[in-house]
Amino acid sequence: MNTRYDFSDQHGIVTGAASGIGKAVALLLAESNAGLALVDRDTSGLEAAARACEEICSTAPLSIDADVSKQSDVQRMVDGTLSRFGKIDFLVTSAGILFRTGFPDIPMHEWDELMATNVRGLFMCNQFVVREMLKQGGGAIVNVASVAGRSISLIGGAHYCASKHAVIGITRHMARELCTRGIRANAFCPGATHTPMIHDNMKPDEIEGLEARIALGRLADPEEHARVIAFMLSDSASYLNGACLDSNGGSVML
Which residue of 63, 85, 230, 234 is surrounded by the most CB atoms within 10 Å? Predict the structure, then answer.
């Protein structure tokens, strides 16, 4: 995978790095010479992602087994990154969960679990990292939302949709409040993608039906999204702030 971005001497955190979009971002940033803290609660997937990054980057990544819904884990994530690299130049929040439960049947424990990861966890990751970025004079943040945050979800339930709307709202507010202090914050809104989240929750015929709603006629590969996120983090996107960048293949929300 070739890229024109150079993240030498830049260090940052990627959550949800064990699989899917998060792993693809980690690999691309590793190839671009970034110092990485890879975060996930899937320990086996995290170890595999770290090994793959180490093979292509001169700086070995830091693996952090953490659940972003837990404040102590998020603090440990930030402390570990600072201890290893001394600063945090960027943050990519790709950790997230999805349930498909229909609206009338969503139990409160499921609502709470999803919101704890997708909203509370994302908020804590951003807040704890922003505190450090303010001390050092700036940084770049990409919060992975979803096409569900722009409209509705064709895959997840109402709680998933609500959580991704929240991601966009948090990001936009951060962008407005923090931009004069050197921090850029943007939301990335991917459409349906070949990730475990899709393939673990949908049958092959459902995926075919989903592809029929996409103008390009196919799901995205995680690497396609990774290239967009790398751009959003890079100096090439220095004027991009408070944006919600769609990467959905021309999804038609019917």
Answer: 230
